[in-house]
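User: Can you help me understand a structure? I only have the sequence.
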Amino acid sequence: YLGRIEQSDPRIEALGVTDYFCIETYKEVRRRQAAGRLTDVRFLFPNVELRIDTKTAADRAINIHLLFSPTDGNHEAEIERNLGKLKFEFGEREYACTRADLIALGRAHDPQQTDERGALKAGANQFKTSLRDLKGLFKAERWMRENCLAAIATKTGDGTAGLQNDDAFAAT
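Assistant: Let's start by predicting it. Here is the structure, written out as tokens:
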């Protein structure tokens, strides 16, 4: 992955690293950059992909990307703190959008998940937030308003385009 970016033509100077509901891959890429990789990449930023519980006509959740500015020296901790405020209920338990709770959710949803990576993937696949909760997070957290841009996918399969023919979402 890093080698292909380093060999790209034209050179990649800005790179958003996407993870579902976390910044684990971003933190690893950042560590590797600090160790001498990706020397041409001058702007590296985290892109957290979330799913909201609103469904498209094809019965798919809508994806939202949170693009974070890396200029705050404490941005990783702030991102994780803010993501942890998002909640999902399953099996009479509330799960936070944290690594530990996503793993716990994955194991609760699919008890066959014995390793952390598989459980994290299963938990991230199940976790949905609401548009109301996400808007509330931006309203309550100045740091989010100053350091995060929300982008909504418009692709027919997983974005708001899947709602365009549904009058029930006109006000939303």
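Now, to help you interpret it: The chain has seven helices and six strands. The beta strands are 14-20, 43-55, 61-68, 87-90, 93-96, 148-152. Let me know which part you'd like to focus on.
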